[in-house]
Amino acid sequence: MSVVITTLDLAAIYALVAIGISLTWAGLGFLNLADGMVFAAAGYGAWWTAEHVSTNPIAVVLAGMVAGAAVGLLICLVVFLRLDGKPNAEMRTLIGTLALSFLGTNVLQAIFGPESKALPAIFGHGKFSLGGTVVTADKTGAIITATILLALVVVLLLRSRIGLGVRILTQNPEAAALVGIDRRRLSLAILAVSGAMTGLASVLLAQVFYVSPEAGYNPLIKGLIVALLGGLGSIPGTILAALLVAATEALTSTYLGGQYVLITLFLLIAIVLLVRPRGLGGLLEAARA
Amino acid sequence: MPKGILPRGTIFWTVLFLIGLFLPLTFGGLGFLSDLGLFTVYASANLMWSLVLGTAGIYSFATFAIVGASGYLAAYLSVAHGWPWPAMLVAGTLAGLVLGLLVTIPAVRLRGVYFALLTFGLASLFSSYANVTDALGGAQGLYGADSFVPQADVGTRGGALIASYAGLTLLIVALLVHRWVDDGRLGLLLRTARESEPFARALGIDIVRARLVVLAISSAVLGLVGAFYVNFYRGISPAIFDFGTLLLLFAMIVVGGLGSRRGVLLGTAVLLFISEAFLQAGPVRLIVIALLMLLVTLFTRSGLIGIPEQLREWLARRYAQRGSSSPSPLWGGSGRG
Amino acid sequence: MTAVLELSDLSAGYGPMQVVHDVNLALAAGTRVGLVGLNGHGKTTLLRSVVGLVDWKRGRVELRGKAIGGLAPHEVARKGVVLIPQGDSLFPGLPVRDNLDSGAFLPKSWRQRARRRAQVLELFPQLANRLNQLAGTLSGGERRMVAIGRGLMADADVYLVDEPSLGLAPGLAAKMIDALLSIELDGGGMLLAEQNRALIEGRVDRIVRIHGGRIAAEE
After folding, report:
1. Where are the domains of chain A?
2. Which of C55, C74, C108, C109 is the best residue to mutate to test the A interface, defined by the most A CB atoms within 10 Å of its own CB?
3. At the topology level of CATH, where does A2-288 sit?
4. pTM surpassing 0.90?
5. What are B246-278's pLDDT values in tens digits?
6. Chain B CB contacts of C74 below 8 Å
7. ipTM for the complex?
């Protein structure tokens, strides 16, 4: 049972990060390697707010999301929009996000120092018993909050005009322009929302681990893995992939030990990609039709 | 001498060779010589990486994973089985070759982005494995390997000179291999395939085979680099798989200019210099490196080495615009600044 | 009569390759002009260069007297010039409803989308029970209907239609032309590129022939 809770908890966090990466890739054509830095920066934004403004949980969460969105916008303006349309844009954007990530992480370290910071417990300290395991408030809170935000994002994508714009962009960028979609304007929205989601993930994860400049590295790798396994651009695929990756990690940690997680994840990736080189995305559409 | 009689760059490379020949002798310091050794290791690895990433357009980040794994094999054979250094070099090269071939299998089936992820993970995987395996020295690493630097000369100027010249030899090998592939038919095939796969296929180019060959060749040299590394330091540790090193290497080829031999050398030299110069400055060191990487990516088309040409084209465009009478209604694409 | 769309000395192409040469064409308000010519003679390139998908070397395009040269395709769409592209260019992973609605993406059209969708369904009743089906799974004729429908959702000023009969059986092709000709122009205009001259002969207000990238004759 504890494996199930851990799986859901991790899946929630990974899904939040992965969907942003997935949409950025599918809609704009680049892998946002700076998302790890966004993660860390959002954590610091939340921490700073907790230290200097208010420890109210809502304020802390919002601060994290706003910081994440702001850094996301920064990435859009400095790297993507600057290089869009230039020679070698694809490679340069990839490298640019990497460089920005590198830069941001070290600037954070220079400003805040290398020691990790703790965030106030947002969901309180309660716990309850479920199926023989003790479930802590932070995990429950993380699962519920992430699910709410994910649901909101999905509704936005499916029902709103902007959501349609993003979906169209991921399908056929030329036809999208023909119906009046301004890709550059939409890129701001995509990266801001992606940043906000990553920001929430950061605040949620920081309930268990700490805020530090390097905190985003692991979530970025996991987010990339989930996004790629899920099939870039497919939300259902990404969520499924998040559950798979989280389950693998949870099971491995519990029964084999933490140091084997990378190996089992590697195996998972190899198996999935061997069977479906384009990720899990198409699987669900095929099942639906 | 009229231009065009000698192959392009002959003078440049001759001068560089002569500098390389006399540099170790004139700049005596052990510190400098050890940096020079590191430079040759990094530059050689980067040249091979540039073949894979630049010429062939394969998004592989397995460079130091291969270097490290081959190095580990060479070190293990020497420490556990007493293999002498020439055998180590051969073993390393072969290990690199085999790894390179193994890496090609997923490369063929996976799309670029997915493959990149896999290669990223390779280094982590090897690192984990090395850390937990006692036969490989665990977290401390493996030490006591044989080397072309005789045991008696370790730590002396003589020893350092041997190491430097050995390193320069390695670098020359890497440069020659790069030139052989890039300037030759294989390079042409790979570049065509990179630009447009359907077009290349229509021309009858066996893309899979071309990629296999370039991965095999570059990985073999990377294996040799790994064996050299072990010779320099008489050992190896999991630190070789560090993500930070990979990033530094990436910064080197990005800043210098992917795909150009001079670019790789320039980038490696510049970044190694900055890295060493700022070694005591803490996070500032990485900030400077990252900033340089960002600025070069944002403002240059193909790294520092491409700046003269970029400048020339920009100036030519400026003068052309001033001279022309009719306004050009180009809305974007190549026209946008 | 004022021209709603006017092309003057338009020369356009791909990189160093020029496809369209010195085209002069005026589309009078409220009229439909057929652009005929063999494949590869510049019909598609001409339409694409009007909306900004192909680079120009020279020339001018004016929409109701205002120059629209140099605008990005999405800006041209915002000005009310809609291209119904050759080969449909749909969004295959999205249902038909979303494909249609995308045509009404612009804010002022978005509010009207239910009404316009109903109009499109009047024109193409076959689409009524396909609204939830993924566009990529439709037949050729149905895809064409969605492409045309998407164009109509914008209630454009100028419609540029590229080869509506392409790949369709004669009966279906004729139906598409019928549908296009039945659209209310409301003072706007339609430029219809069509390889099969017989389909539009006598049914449009004017036919212009393009050959080798140049306008051969106006009839």
Report:
1. 2-288
2. C74
3. ABC transporter involved in vitamin B12 uptake, BtuC (1.10.3470)
4. no
5. 889 999 999 998 888 999 999 999 999 998 888
6. none
7. 0.91
